[in-house]
Amino acid sequence: MFLIFVLILGGNLLWPSESIMFSQGKYRAAVVEFDALPEPFLFPHEVMLNNAEQYLKLIERASEKRVDIIVFPEDGLTTLDVAKKTPQKLANYSIEVPDPAIYPNPRINESYNKVLRMLSFAAHEHHMYIVINLIEKFKDIGFTFYYNTDVVFDRNGVIVVRYRKINLVNDPKLHPGKELAKFRTDFGVTFGIFTCNDILYRRPAVDIVQDKNLTDIILPSAWYSETPFIQSLSIQAGYARATGVNLLAAGLNYPPMYGGSGIYLHDGRIAELYISPSKSSKLIIQDVPKSRVKLSAIKCNNNSHPTPRFRLGGHLNEGMLNTPHEDMSLHTLHPLNFHDLETKVKLCNYNGEYCCRFRVVLQERPAFHDPKYMLALFYGVRTFGDTTIGVRSCGLIACLNKDKSTCGMRNHTSRSETIFKQISIRGNFDHGYNDNFDMPITLTYEQLPLTEYTYCETLTDDKKAVLAEMRSTQPLTNLMSFGIFGRMYVYDGRNPGIITNGVHSTLSNNVLVVCTLIMILLVRKNV
After folding, report:
1. What per-residue confidence (pLDDT) applies to 42?
2. Most CB within 10 Å of its CB: which of 139, 192, 307, 346?
3. Closest Cα to residue 511, out of 524, 526, 497, 527?
4. What is the pLDDT of residue 257?
5. Is there a single domain that holds both residue 281 and residue 421?
6. For the chain, how many structural domains are there in total?
């Protein structure tokens, strides 16, 4: 039994339909959740050619709907974890990509790799921008470098973008890129592009949206999800809401850890989402309104929209969404008041540098068997693949029971029937473009983000702090998380643990308190 979620919202010659789209201020986009062909029993070139053949079929289907641009996921051609393989195998999976500065057109140049030529022909034949991801081989003065690279073909089959992933996680044999990438289309939209976990780093995810003319982002991804704060769709939706961009996100389908694709609109709406616990591919096609002004959170974008109804495919078996969960042992956790129905509390890190004020109102007392809920706060460093990142987060999270070690886990047997009449989270956070970035995070039992909330950031007069507020706009149920997830870039690469008064500690809250008391007693004894 399987469950598939699809979320629906009710130099070139332009085709007639494209001319209409241009005048009406929208374009037609497709993103692909792709189930890559498995590697066993096939040679590397066979794997890539077979996956490329599947791409061509999806492109042809998109062409029938007059799609302007189609996005395929990270690792879709090569399959997952190719970068971890032996150097020889990595070389066999790699492709030399010409510099876009020379306007290369593989369609008319037989010296280029067959995969590039196939997709260049498709872009020209179907008059469509095509975005793919591959392992790039680059030779320079006797050395060979390998990159995780996104390639963009224009409608004539010309390669117009070659973006090399900057932030590599679990890719020990690849070389990081350095440059941002953007391009302008013939339908009047300027896109930026980056890959997967790049979305959690200042460069490129924050740097690129500083361009006032850039309104849309492309995200090929093979995202490893964890509840409650870094699930794929939740991160995608939060980034789009915080930056005020249209986001085209294509995910590699490899459940339960990897997967999740969507088209997110600059005004807070979600055009369509897809996630599945079973291996499958899905072509998502939606019209995307062109954005003239980015309605970022710092401009107080308080748009709230009802989440459209779900269309379910296959047989309903929600228990198969076994997404991994984060270790919450270093979080400050505070239980909700289930007796008075209202909880008002302020949680802070040790020196009060990071505080969140919560107000949670229940509509009625929850059933005994319902998941329990905690208010959570974290200010420190957490693991992220084979590296670590600085994180500040606060939010309402579900737990399986009263045991705090179960917080962030998903109940695989039943949904939560607890109804939240209102949830509000307010915080006064340190602000710094080079240091921090915050986004709203929401997630339901079905692993889908919400839109029934407002999120606003306001700079203080001295611009040293940001006042952030997140508030639900209607009763909510079936929640897994509702909160604010922030990045602190200056702490990246440090040992995991909490941060206190500028001191980095890997000890838990209780252990720190005990150690402090012991030190006080020893000092008094010596005196």
Report:
1. 83
2. 192
3. 497
4. 86
5. no
6. 2
Structure tokens at 413: 């047997």
- CA pair distance 290, 40, nearest whole angstrom: 43
Does one domain contain both 93 and 78? yes
- The span from the CA of 116 to the CA of 450, in Å, is 38
Q: Which single residue is written with the structure tokens 């990071």?
A: 354
Query: Cα(279)–Cα(35) distance, rounded to whole angstroms?
Result: 6
Q: What are phi and psi of 482, to 5 degrees?
A: -155, 105
Q: Which residues make Cβ contacts (< 8 Å) with residue 348, sequence separation at least 6?
A: 354, 355, 356, 377
396, β-bridge pairs: 375, 482
Same domain for 276 and 344, yes or no, is: no
Query: Do 439 and 501 belong together in one domain?
Result: yes
Domain boundary among 298, 318, 338: 318
Find where tokens 């921008």 sit. Answer: 129
Q: How far apart are CA 251 and CA 221, in angstroms?
A: 5
Domain CATH code at residue 45: 3.60.110.10
User: Contact, 291 vs 384, CB < 8 A?
Assistant: no
The whole-number pLDDT of residue 20 equals 39
In angstroms, how far apart are the furthest CA atoms of the chain?
A: 88
One-character DSSP codes across 155-204:
TTS-EEEEEEPSS-SS-TTS-------EEE-TTS-EEEE--GGGGGSIII
In a domain, 418, yes or no: yes
The pair of three-digit structure tokens given for residue 52, joined into one six-digit string: 């490329």
* Domain limits for position 8: 4-13+21-318
Give the integer Cα–Cα distance in Å for 428 and 424.
Answer: 14
Q: Within a 10 A sphere around the Cβ of 497, how many other Cβ atoms?
A: 17
Please tell me the predicted confidence (pLDDT) of residue 518: 43
- Final residue before a domain boundary, out of 318, 344, 360: 318
Residue 521 lies in a domain: no
* Pair 249, 391 in one domain: no
Across the chain, mean pLDDT equals: 86
Distances (CA, A) of 223 to 155, 170, 199, 200, 354: 28, 12, 10, 11, 28
> 290: burial class by Cβ within 10 Å (0-12, 13-18, 19+)?
middle
> Do 217 and 342 fall within a single domain?
no
In angstroms, rounded to a whole number, what is the distance separating the alpha carbons of residues 355 and 348? 4
CA 156 from centre of chain = 30
Whether residue 518 is contained in a domain is answered as: no
pLDDT in tens, 454-481: 999 888 888 778 899 999 999 999 999 9
Q: Which residues in the chain come in under a pLDDT of 50?
A: 1-6, 8-23, 308-319, 503-525, 527
Nearby residues of 130 by Cβ (< 8 Å), 6 or more positions away? 59, 69, 70, 72, 119, 122, 123, 152, 153
In-domain check, residue 203: yes
217 plus 349 within the same structural domain: no
In angstroms, rounded to a whole number, what is the distance separating the alpha carbons of residues 247 and 245?
6
Residues 172 and 204 in one domain: yes
The pLDDT score that the predictor gives to residue 24 is 56
